[in-house]
Design goal:
With about 325 residues, the chain is an alpha/beta fold. The protein is built from 11 helices and 15 strands. The strands form 5 sheets. A 7-stranded parallel sheet has the order 3-2-1-4-5-7-12, sandwiched between helices. The protein has a two-stranded parallel ribbon with strand order 6-15. It has a two-stranded parallel ribbon with strand order 8-11. The longest helix is centred in the first third of the chain and has 22 residues. It starts with a strand and ends with a helix.
Length: about 325
C-alpha cells in the first residue's frame, strides 16, 4: 500500500508540530515546511522531509505542493499589533498563492485543511454561536481581518474550482510549543504589569493544541468535511480566574490586580491612538484583542464538529495547561 503524502506548513510552530506528530502516527509521509531561519527541533527525528521556504514568495510555493495528497495550512502571523501588510502577506495573500499552486499543479489532492480562527467572528460577547453566524470581514486588527478574508479566498477556490477545502476555526490555544501567549502571560505576571479586567468570570474559548490536532486529522479523513467550516475548542470552557490562577500557581506569582471592565474598555481607543502616533513597536497596555482575551464571553458551539467529524476533545484544561507550563519553564 502506497503511503499517503501530506504537506504541513508552519510545521515547527505550535499547531504544525502537533499535526505532524499525529500524521506520522497515522502513517502519512510528511513534507514539513519550515520558515527560513527557524530550527525544526520540535519535529526532528520523526522521519519528515523538512523543507525551508517562504510562502510570501510565489516562486517558492509550487514545488511544495507537487505530489501532495493532503495539505494542512497551519502557517500564519499571530499577534495583536503591527503593520497590517505584514499580516496580509502571510495570512491572506499566501493562502491565495498556495491554493493557486494547488489548482495548477496538484491533480492528486484529497484534502486541504485551512487553519483559520474563532477570531473571525465579530468583536463582542459570544454565547454559543455556531458556524451559521457570518464572519466579520472588516475585523478589529490585522490578524482577525486577514484571517476572515482568507476564508473568502478558500471559499472562492472551493466554489469555482472544486478544491477539497475544509476550514477549521480554533479557539484560544494553549499547549506545548506556545511561543506567544503563555510567555507574555508569564512575563507580565512576574513583573506585576498584568491586570485582571472585571470579575474574571466570563468564559474563554480555550483549546488544547492536541485537541486541535485531533480535529485536523478528522477533517483530513472524513469525506463529509469537504466544503465545511468547523468551530473547535475544548469540551469544558474555563473562566479567566481559572486560567490566570493556574499560571500564577505554577510560577509562584500572586494574582494580579483588578480593574473595572468599563475603565479598560474606554482606554482602548485613546491608548491605541497615542501608540500609533508615536510609532510604538509594541502594543499599548490595552488593545481590542487583549480586552477580548481578558474580559469578553467567548463561547462558541462545537456541536457541528461533534456531529459531522466525531470530534471529542480528549484533554481538559486541568491536564493540558500544566503540561504547557512545565515545557515552557524547562525551556
Amino acid at each position: 500500500m502506497t503511503q499517503k503524502t501530506m504537506l504541513v506548513t508552519g510545521a515547527s510552530g505550535m499547531v504544525g508540530r502537533h499535526v505532524v506528530r499525529k500524521a506520522v502516527e497515522a502513517g502519512y509521509g510528511i513534507r514539513a515546511l519550515v520558515h527560513n531561519g527557524e530550527l525544526p527541533d520540535s519535529i526532528a527525528g520523526l522521519g519528515c522531509e523538512i523543507v525551508y521556504g517562504d510562502l510570501t514568495k510565489p516562486d517558492e510555493v509550487p514545488p511544495l505542493v507537487d505530489g501532495m495528497q493532503v495539505i494542512v495550512h497551519a502557517a500564519g502571523k499571530v499577534g495583536d499589533w503591527g503593520p497590517f501588510e505584514e499580516y496580509k502577506a502571510i495570512n491572506q495573500d499566501a493562502v491565495a498563492t498556495l491554493l493557486e499552486a494547488v489548482r495548477q499543479r496538484s491533480d492528486s489532492l484529497d484534502r486541504f485543511v485551512h487553519i483559520s480562527s474563532l477570531g473571525v467572528y465579530r468583536w463582542g460577547d459570544h454565547y454559543g454561536e455556531d458556524e451559521t453566524v457570518p464572519p466579520d470581514y472588516v475585523g478589529y486588527d490585522g490578524y482577525t481581518t486577514t484571517k476572515a478574508r482568507a476564508e473568502l479566498i478558500c471559499r472562492r477556490y472551493l466554489d469555482d474550482y472544486g478544491l477539497p477545502i475544509v476550514m477549521i476555526r480554533p479557539g484560544f490555544m494553549y499547549g506545548e510549543g506556545d511561543r506567544h501567549v503563555l510567555p507574555r502571560v508569564v512575563e507580565t505576571l512576574q513583573n506585576r504589569t498584568m491586570m485582571m479586567v472585571g470579575d474574571g468570570t466570563k468564559m474563554l474559548d480555550n483549546l488544547y493544541v492536541g485537541n486541535l490536532a485531533d480535529a485536523v486529522m478528522l477533517a483530513v479523513e472524513k469525506p463529509a468535511a469537504v466544503g465545511q467550516v468547523y468551530n473547535i475548542r475544548d469540551e469544558r470552557l474555563i473562566d479567566r480566574n481559572e486560567y490566570i490562577g493556574a499560571v500564577c500557581k505554577a510560577i509562584g506569582a500572586p494574582l494580579p490586580r483588578r480593574v473595572p471592565s468599563w475603565l479598560a474598555k474606554n482606554a482602548i481607543k485613546p491608548l491605541g491612538t497615542i501608540a500609533r502616533a508615536i510609532g510604538k513597536k509594541s502594543p499599548p497596555l490595552v488593545t481590542k484583542p487583549r480586552y477580548k482575551f481578558m474580559a469578553l464571553n467567548l463561547d462558541y458551539s462545537i456541536d457541528k464538529a461533534k456531529r459531522e467529524l466525531g470530534y471529542v476533545p480528549k484533554v481538559d484544561f486541568v491536564e493540558g495547561m500544566p503540561i504547557a507550563i512545565e515545557r515552557y519553564l524547562k525551556k
